[in-house]
Amino acid sequence: MNESQSPIRSVDRDRGDTLSGDDAAASHASQSTGEAGNPNLSPLEGGRWRPVSPDELLRRNTASSDPENDEASQQNQQRVRLQRRQELEHKLKANPTDLEGYLELAAIYRDEHRPIEAKRLLQQAKQIFPDDEQITWELEEAVLARSLQQLREVSDLAKRVNSADADRELERSRSDWAHRRMEVCRARLERDPSQVNYRLLLAEAKFDAELFDDAFDDAGRLVELDEYSAAAHFLRARCLLSNGKDLEAMKELRAVALRRAVVAPPALRRTALRHLVELSEKLSLPSTGKLYREQLNHVEQAIAAEQQSAAK
């Protein structure tokens, strides 16, 4: 699989409401198989199996004009998938060198939300095909999916159970999710250093691992690249805020909110301006705070107008 066509997906850079590292961790990371599928679609829409955002991993409850038919269709698809899974499991026992069989069965496991089985199967395939790029890629996907699955499960438990044990397990799961992303990003950069997007994703994972200085330095290597500049400045601001360096953070936030050479997405500008307003109040800077509030009003009006236009 061409790695440039299916990168690990970051928090959507058009969304600016992701300042919290915990929110990003509880909400990041993969389906479909082989070269088939539109790379511009999510796996749930028929795209390639790749790390995806949480919104993609979560099944959407779409409105249905005929719920009974939809349910019957879903049950039929499940029966077909079950039959095919059983066929492939028997086939691979008899023919353990069937590369396509491994990939198809792993995709079925993932579609059934069973990343543990996908990981186990692909580890077996990796022993047989140690140099196959697609097996390596899908195994990384399965590792990420399992880590994210654990984080979600523990997050749900921690919401229901107020205990020190649940909190510790949640922290462990967050750390695991960050470190698994770091491992995959490093591995893919080692295979192809030209994939610059992984450098930003690596920096984001380091931030979630609370390696704020490392994340700040990594993001700094991307600020001169127009495609990544706004996101890199915003990540550097998050690092500085986490280290209690409010004035330095304001400089990075201004690069996101006010820079004319490279205009950040509106939602990201809005978030940067909101934080600038808050920091101005915190640091007793009324004049600059007024400027930021005016800019924030303009951006919010523009976003509202765009949303109204899209709704028509």
Q: Would you mind describing this structure in some detail?
A:
It is a single chain. By secondary structure, the chain is an all-alpha fold. The longest helix has 28 residues. The chain is elongated.
Can you give keywords for this protein?
disordered N terminus, mainly alpha, 0% strand, elongated, 13 helices, 69% helix, single chain, 312 residues
Summarize the structure.
It contains 13 helices and no strands.
What's the SSE blueprint?
Elements: H1 21-26, H2 54-57, H3 67-94, H4 99-111, H5 115-128, H6 133-160, H7 164-191, H8 197-208, H9 212-220, H10 226-242, H11 246-257, H12 266-282, H13 286-311
* Alpha-beta classification: mainly alpha
Mean pLDDT level = 83
Radius of gyration: 22 Å
Instruction: Please report the distance between the alpha carbons of the first and last residues.
Output: 40 Å
Low-confidence stretches: 1-7, 9-37, 42-49, 54-64
Count of helices?
A: 13
| Global shape | elongated
Work out the strand percent: under 5%
The helix content is 55-70%
Number of E-type strands: 0
- H and E string: HHHHHHHHHHHHH
Main sheet properties: none
